[in-house]
């Protein structure tokens, strides 16, 4: 099982066995390189932990624990978990500011505890197979155990096809679940108990009478504090710098906290002269790099590299991958020889309404109208009626999203929709970020998702986030004093991908062939004739737009790639 995670922890490994309980760990050394080996136990060996992530405030927590008599054998953040648990039990997680997934074994109480950070930055999966309970940072480690089964979850397939996000802790594998963000799972005396210790609806700060200027100052202070806490590292650290607003803000603030020149990284594809200037990240990233005197590197990839890594990326991400995952995978491959830790602007789009459709009044839509899955009706029409009936996917998804939106009490429709983004879509993005970076032994940190900043921004007035002519209003306001004007006003661009007009038809033909083939792995999910009609714009699909065709084609190609990567039968 630990061998399946060797890419996540290339520096060290360890195992602790206590009767029927076994902990395995693969270490990526970031803090206290000489100490901090895992699994790690307390002084008398009654409490053990295996852990992935960073607790940024561990040095602030340590003195109080020492005053209470706890003795520390290392300078690692890992040991904080053990002693904080001894002092406060599982409630200790409320003290931690960071990104983490850990398992803790209390031998005295015969209690196993799994915990995940508030926003779900670090992944954690589990499953029960007969009388065996398995858990890991990646599903492939669970599947390595003889008791586990590699079987498709048809509800997961339906979730993926209809809204891209897997709901209710579901994965693509039957019997394997994802621990919810902000969740604690306790196993004792054969009984599993799930507790949510933090949720966005409960934590959101209300802002009666707060001005845009006040909000700007608070957000800047919180973001700067988060960046300052997250530059702590005993190994080389840098930032991803695309020249967009979010990564540029993180890089600008990080440059003020590190000693020496900050390392920054950008990427792109060699498109020749086919792209408009505004679509190319390089010149904008260079503006920021020059302004803050960073040690900047831009990596240019060939289009064929993107296609060549699809199967490897799918194996690492463990679900059908979106269009940007191969690009990130290639980027982190090149980053690894330079740094072990990077910070990025992930999360800002979901917090501050950064996507283009927020400028189009989508906040007034119904929950089922996922802006990130705009072709729901077209895709639903392609599904095999038996799959729809078996998974009850349309009604189930509508019920889940309606209930979630209702749980977030806000007078702003936009804020309610942004909550859904943070609850579902963001977790998908974080999973992609974690697994494409950890595939190369690189740790990704996300200052925008410091939970205190998230709590503050959640219910800021919608006008501070999006207006008809501008998004990320409060971020652009605070960025005016930090970044070049061209970067502040630049419209959002997606992660670079090697797509041109010909790609639409190439991907269409490829997807249709995968469904129509006699030995197809994915045909069982679809009505073959309707798929053919869809990709050729016939009958009820005559007016289908090209973007719908391209995005749906990629979804089918990615689904087939997942089946191939894991040898799973439909």
Automatic annotation (TrEMBL):
Stored Pfam families: Asn_synthase (PF00733), GATase_7 (PF13537)
Keywords: ATP-binding, Glutamine amidotransferase, Nucleotide-binding
BP term (GO), one: asparagine biosynthetic process
Reaction catalysed by this enzyme: L-aspartate + L-glutamine + ATP + H2O = L-asparagine + L-glutamate + AMP + diphosphate + H(+)
Protein name per its UniProtKB record: asparagine synthase (glutamine-hydrolyzing)
Binding site for ATP: 240, 344-345
Associated pathway: Amino-acid biosynthesis; L-asparagine biosynthesis; L-asparagine from L-aspartate (L-Gln route): step 1/1
Assigned protein family: Belongs to the asparagine synthetase family.
Domain Glutamine amidotransferase type-2 per the UniProt entry, residue ranges: 1-190
NCBIfam families reported for this sequence: asn_synth_AEB
Domain of life of the native organism: Bacteria
Keyword Transferase: no
Molecular function in Gene Ontology: asparagine synthase (glutamine-hydrolyzing) activity; ATP binding
Residues that, per the record, bind L-glutamine: 77
EC number: 6.3.5.4
